[in-house]
């Protein structure tokens, strides 16, 4: 135990990047070599893997217990492993880049654990050093599942699983609702995407006035020639003309930039926005985008002070916010 204390003590550093301003504690760490020298069987020392259980089952460091930091029950799960918050705990996560162990240390420090250390480089560093692992798939190459890899193909948009939400505003309130996709397709070739989405403008629906007698009045107004003139222009078309990757293609961040054209009310105007694309295990695609359009580009000028005076209560802001979520199958 004296050797273990010496090893841990010498690894404590007070570099600025190791100081966490949330917990006001120094983030203490140990190296792979230090971990190899520790007696994990000692009852006062615990090695904890903070990754999801399925990853732990596939591969983990011998002697480790699992408490996933992504679970809301993390601290409760940890309490089942560690009976005394004064006991020594070494945590490890995925890699040097991943913040899993650091976040776990912050949570534990706030909860009163007194001696918590991070394994530098996580299980990636442990494996890279040639150390033994345990689990059901220790020979598999580890995929961190952080960046997107798209396979080429043609995809048909699933109208039932895809949604377009809108929100319009005026000085006193806002209205929001949906409009339905009638059909669409996407194509991926060499990591780039193109496609076309057709929207049924007669399906425009208001949500926030649901049950109010003004709901059908608003919907009729939106379909009239004051706004989308759906009797003359029942379909809107969004064409994705140039969709380029935003490297390094993080799966949860906007990872593609779209240059496209929107044909609405018989007018075609350019449209640029970022979107987040993911590919599921069955090779379906999901696309998520949030952006504003200036409706006056499509001659929808009702209530705009750029075109009218003395509007009084009839003012309507020019920007409409759009939220598009697409699900497409191969």
Overview of this protein structure:
By secondary structure, this protein is an alpha+beta fold. It contains 7 helices and 16 strands. Strands 8, 9, 10, 11, 12, 13, 14, 15 and 16 form a 9-stranded antiparallel beta sheet that branches. The longest helix is centred in the first third of the chain and has 11 residues, at 100-110. The chain is elongated, with a radius of gyration of 27 Å. Residues 1-26 have low confidence and may be disordered.
Which structural class matches the secondary elements?
alpha+beta
Q: What distance separates the N and C termini?
A: 59 Å
Shape: elongated
Per DSSP E runs of 2 or more residues, the count of β-strands stands at 16
The level of helicity is 10-25%
Q: Which keywords apply here?
A:
single chain; 330 residues; alpha+beta; 9-stranded antiparallel beta sheet; 5-stranded parallel beta sheet; 7 helices; 16 strands; 37% strand
Layout of helices and strands:
Layout: H1 2-10, E1 19-20, E2 25-26, E3 28-30, H2 32-36, E4 45-49, H3 53-58, E5 65-66, H4 74-81, E6 88-92, H5 100-110, E7 115-119, H6 122-128, E8 153-157, E9 163-169, E10 174-189, E11 192-206, H7 215-223, E12 235-245, E13 256-264, E14 267-279, E15 285-294, E16 319-329
Parallel strand pairs: 3-7, 4-5, 4-6, 6-7
Antiparallel strand pairs: 1-2, 8-10, 8-16, 9-10, 9-16, 10-11, 11-12, 12-13, 13-14, 14-15, 15-16
């Amino acid at each position: 135990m004296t050797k273990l204390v010496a090893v841990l003590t010498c690894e404590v550093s007070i570099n600025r990047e190791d100081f966490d301003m949330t917990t006001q504690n120094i983030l203490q760490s140990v190296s792979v070599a230090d971990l190899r020298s520790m007696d994990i069987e000692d009852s006062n020392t615990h090695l904890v893997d903070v990754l999801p259980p399925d990853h732990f089952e596939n591969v983990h460091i011998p002697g480790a217990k699992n408490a996933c930091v992504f679970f809301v029950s993390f601290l409760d799960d940890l309490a089942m492993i560690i009976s005394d918050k004064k006991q020594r705990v070494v945590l490890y996560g995925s890699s040097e880049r991943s913040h899993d162990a650091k976040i776990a240390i912050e949570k534990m420090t706030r909860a009163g654990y007194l001696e918590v250390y991070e394994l530098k480089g996580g299980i990636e560093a442990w494996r890279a050093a040639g150390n033994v692992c345990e689990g059901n798939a220790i020979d598999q190459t580890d995929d961190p599942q952080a960046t997107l890899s798209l396979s080429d193909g043609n995809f048909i948009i699933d109208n039932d699983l895809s949604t377009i939400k809108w929100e319009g505003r005026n000085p006193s309130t806002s209205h929001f609702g949906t409009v339905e996709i009638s059909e669409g397709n996407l194509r991926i070739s060499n990591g780039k995407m193109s496609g076309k989405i057709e929207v049924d403008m007669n399906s425009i629906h208001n949500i926030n006035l649901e049950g109010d007698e003004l709901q059908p009045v608003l919907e009729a107004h939106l379909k009239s020639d004051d706004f989308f003139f759906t009797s003359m222009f029942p379909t809107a078309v969004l064409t994705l003309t140039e969709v380029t990757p935003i490297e390094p293609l993080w799966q949860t961040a906007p990872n593609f930039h779209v240059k496209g054209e929107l044909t609405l009310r018989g007018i075609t105007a350019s449209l640029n926005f970022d979107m987040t694309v993911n590919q599921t295990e069955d090779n379906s695609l999901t696309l998520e985008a949030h952006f504003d359009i200036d409706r006056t580009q499509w001659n929808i000028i009702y209530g705009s002070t750029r075109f009218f005076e003395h509007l009084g209560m009839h003012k309507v802001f020019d920007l409409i916010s759009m939220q598009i979520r697409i699900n497409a199958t191969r």
